[in-house]
Structures are given as structure tokens and as C-alpha cells.
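Q: What changes when S-adenosyl-L-homocysteine is included in the input?
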Amino acid sequence: MNFADTEVVMGILKNKGYEITENIDNANVIFLNTCSIRDNAEQRIYGRLGNIKTHKDTRPDTVIGILGCMAERLRKDLIEDKKIVDIVVGPDEYRRLPEFIDEAFAGEKGIGVKLSRTETYDDILPYREDGLNAWLSVMRGCDKFCTFCVVPFTRGRERSRNLDSIVEEVKQLSVRNFREVTLLGQNVNSYNDEGRDFADLLAACAEVDPLLRIRYTTSHPQDLNDKLLETMAKYDNICKYIHLPVQSGSNRVLELMNRTYTIEHYLTIIDKARELMPGVSFSTDIIAGFPTETDEDHQKTLDIMAKVRYDGAYMFKYSPREGTKAWKMGDDVPEEVKTRRLTEIIDLQQKISAEINQAGIGNEEVVLVEGFSKKSKEFLSGRTDTNKIAIIPNVDNIKPGDYVRIKIHRATSATLFGDILEVIGDGKKEVQLTA
Ligand code: SAH
Ligand code: SF4
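A: The predicted holo structure follows.
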């Protein structure tokens, strides 16, 4: 999401004549786009600010800005504590950046941290380098208020972008030969543009170009409905991959987290999706060590992982965030217990991922080729519809952007290795832009 926001910021600044430099020594303005989701994300930014300080010492006229959630969360403190910071701008005030930069060059510090109920940057074309994969924010903010989460406070209330403007942007990506668009929102299932829901948006994006894969993230289990699953099943170019964060396997903890679903409800979604889309893959987010979490609760998390058999998972230790409801619950699970539980969760997930991938040996998959494999130019790397990395031989003039049907002959927990069966379609459909 921050990657997409950075492209919006670059779009705004490019419109004012700014250029991006690859070399920090050439920069007159340096922005760090920040994340507050867990404490370690914030600590990394303090580390980066330390590095930039030497730069500012040698070139005091450089403008340094903090953007994003940390700007929103820490506001004035950042400018007062970190003397090198000139500008602090939260996620809803990026339009004012050119103004803040001008003021900073004139020696004035600037803070823009108002949250908006309407800002969606609908009319700003993000600045994107040519490529195959694009991120596209379809909504901003979040109204869910999970008790551990800082997002509703740093990114504000939920609002959806206009459907037609999103489809127009997808068309432009198709014309530029992008092959994959990931639609982004904290809870895409509550997308609503005057009655048009997320399934409508997904269908409209999928119609643009059959060679353009559509992915999306993140689904909240409370709002994922049958219409969305049926829409996914209907279009070949909507990837059969659902990121469905469960957070915990214990209903008691889910209630304390204000996740608003039970494990039983969660499992009905998984079953329905598998019924409509055999072979659909799932990933999840899990938090270890939420306040009051017992060994029994933790065991329930391991149980749900074993039951669903996720293809992948993002797994975190609970990190208390000031201002959230969970902050007031204390942080009573000792660090070593959190570490142990997280290790058990990671180990189990690795075992499951390896087993699922092993069981897929002999299967056929369609892979979008993205580039050379990291290890050797004799191999190419791509991703399956289900979002797994696949390595294939670099033969037959196959190039990034081609779709290739492969047969899996080897697999690890993270990677599939395949033989090429055929190269399918790299031709383009005519796409009409309306604007
Ligand atoms: N909107 C998405 C998640 C956004 S944050 C959703 O609801 O699924 C991504 C993930 O970070 C969350 O799913 C959660 O697992 C994790 N996370 C958020 N706040 C956290 C905290 N305080 N401590 C640890 N992990 C957290
Ligand atoms: Fe945070 Fe919950 Fe909103 Fe996700 S749904 S961003 S976890 S408050």
C-alpha cells in the first residue's frame, strides 16, 4: 500500500516538474514513506533517518520529509525530536506536498496531518515505471477498528474510489503492456461506489483485457460474500488466490481483537471458495501473543492452520500500538513465550507449504514470466495464478510478459520448478481508452 502511495506522491510531484533521482547525493528533497503497523517498522525508519543525517550535515539545504502513517501518528514530535526533519505529511495531505516543499526551502517547517473523509486521489495518475505488475489502491482508510491495529487512526475512515476511474487506469496499464494489477484496500470487501460493490469492480477490471491478471488484497472474513467468490470463479484472469487473514484460531481472542467473525464462519468461507474454485490457494496473517493469549488459544491457532492448510502466511508477534484498545489490555504475554509461539507457527506453516507444493508435483500450471531467476540466467522466474514462484528453463526465446504452461517436476516450501509445455498468447487485445 505504501508502494502505491509513493507512486501517487511521485505523480503529484512530477506534475509540478520534480524529477526522481536514483542517487541520494543528487537529491534536493528526500522523503521517507513510513509504516506504523508494528514497532519494528517504525524503528527501521529511525535507523534510516540516522543515515540521512550525515547527508543533511554535508548539505544542510536538503529538505527531509516523513510521509505516511508515522507522520500521522507522531506529528509534531518528529519535527521536535528529529531536528533534521523539515516536513511531516500524513496519507491524506499529499496534494499539499509541493506547497510544503516550497515553504521548507524558505526555511519553514511544515506539518500536514489532517485526515479526510473524501480524499481518494482519484484524479491523480500515479507515476509508474514500465513493468508487468502494478499496485492500484481502490480505497483508503479502514472502519473496522480491530483492537490491535493503528490503521484506522493513521489512515482515517474508509472511502472508495470511483469505479469508472479505476477501470480507466486499468485500461491504461493494459495499453502499457502491464500483465498484472493488484487492487488494494484494507478491507476490499466493503468497497462501495454508489452501490457498486467489490465484485462489480473486480468483474469490470477483469473485462478490460484477458491477458491482464487481476489480484486483490485484503479480504476481511466478515464481509467476503458469495457474489465475490462467484465473480472470481467466472473470470479466468482473476487469480485464484485469496489472502484471508485469520489472526487467531481462538474465538475468545478473535472477540477481544474485535475481528467480528468466528472460526466457524471463517471455515464456511474457505469451504465455499474451494467448492466454487477447486485448487484455489489461501494465505493468511497471524498474530502470536495477543494480550491474554493462553497456550490453549495458541493451540487453536495451530489447529486452524492445520485445518485450512494455507499455501502461505505472514506471521507476526503482537506489537502494542499506543492509542488502540488493545494497548489498554496490557502486553502480558512474555517476550519468550511470544517468540516460542511464533516459531511454532512459522515451522508449521513451512511444513504445510512444503507438503502442498510436493503434492503438486506432476500438476500443470500457467505461469506469467517475470524475469531471470535470482540464481542463474539459464532459468526464468514467474508466478502461478495461485501466486507461487515458479522457475523454468530459459529457452525458446521466452520473455518477461509471456504466459507459459508448465508441468511441475520439483518443489520446495517456497518454489516450484517446472518444464515448459507450451508458450501461450503474448498477443494483445485492442483496448479502447475513453478519456
Ligand atoms: N487490513 C488488513 C491488514 C492490514 S495490517 C486485514 O485486516 O487483514 C497487516 C497485518 O499486520 C494484519 O493482518 C495483522 O496480522 C498485522 N498487525 C496489525 N497490527 C498489528 C500489531 N499491533 N501487532 C502485530 N501484528 C499486527
Ligand atoms: Fe487494521 Fe483490522 Fe482495518 Fe485490517 S481490518 S486495517 S487489521 S483495523
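Observations recorded in class: Residues 427-431 have pLDDT under 50 and may be disordered.
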